[in-house]
Amino acid sequence: MRGRRMKPGMRMVGVVAAAFTAGAVLGPVVAPPVMSAFAQEAGNRAETYRLLNLFGDVFERVRAEYVEPVKDREVIEAAINGMLQGLDPHSSYMNARSFRDMQVQTRGEFGGLGIEVSQEGGYVKVISPIDDTPAAKAGVKPGDLITHLNGESVQGLTLQESVEKMRGERGSSIKLTIRRPGTETPIELSLTRDVIRPQVARFRLEGNDIGYVRLSSFNEQTESALRRAVSTMRSQAGGNLKGLILDLRNNPGGLLDQAVQVSDDFLEQGEIVSTRARRPDDAQRWNAKPGDITEGLRVVVLVNGGSASASEIVAGALQDHRRGVVLGTKSFGKGSVQTVMPIPGNGAIRLTTARYYTPSGRSIQALGISPDVEVLATREEGNAPLRDREADLRRALRNDNATHESAPLPPLNLPAGVLDKVQRMPPEGAPAFDPTKPETDFQLQQAVSLLRAWSAAEPQRRAAR
Fold it and tell me: Are strands 325-328 and 373-374 parallel, antiparallel or unpaired?
């Protein structure tokens, strides 16, 4: 890592400060520009004070004349949240309770329904249900819009207020009204809240020769769970592993440091990710340390439109270094970093402080990771409109790839004929996907076919050199 560290805070790739710098050179020649700069700064400061007076005037009008009495704290917190949410889709204010909940969640345990959400058009939009939670078991799907909670509209609520309403005591129930793309009538679901302890890494052997690991999020337990999974599968396979599938589909991201550590687990050297902030001095870069926990196994990374943030850092790092083949559909495209900055006694703010870049120097903000091998989950996906991604969110940050140079990706360089074993979409009449039956997961089965064909062809390619 190099470069000056940014303000302390938790870095998330799933809060108001200002800095002013001034410089002057002594001498009569530069006096007029310096005086002009001081005058401009004084004018800007005066305008800021006028705007703060405007805020105070509006606040007093609300306190004095709103139809019902209001609490000062609630009005101020709503104003702060509005200011932050007006910047981009990922900046927000967390009151003390919400901040505590976020800290618990990043440790790998939290209460609620088990849904990763954002806000769109005043509704709560599901990014991804977390595996084996009340939401996943009830059939909540990525892209669902939650319009009502217990019959009350979420319109007018902040995202944080909606999230708080969905949380509650274990065993209590809540009714969700969902509007699902492609479904004409609203869907009513009744869910029972539970303590959410997601198993962040699920793993198994596919046919005793291919390791499969699904990472559902990036919390403080992710990298250690990945290490245990790989070690266990090595023992189970008895030295017969031909490759590893890293499943990041519908993984909404999480902690930046965990994305770096997971990437480092597969890389021996080279850059993993870099971040660029408003000030050049705040740029940072993370590099891999020697040591590959798979000992050089062939890797396929599965991604889709629900793979976001930290998931895209891992997929981008392995893709740029050609350490793994990325298979599936284009990812979500969240290429920004949020820093959580505690405010003593008043919760915290989550502020977008940087963009991140893959080792080749490309930003995936509003673009996503394009797979090396496109494989659709269903035949219908080929004709359906793309699910919403980062670029579709209001006030999403622009992509700045045009402002800097990035290196082209190295060629995929797979043995001849390997990609011929991979089909782009399921055949007609293929069984519908059932999470309990891996054989119905078309993308997974194509990844298995690719790894086996790759393993079979690799010795031939070596012999031909």
Answer: parallel
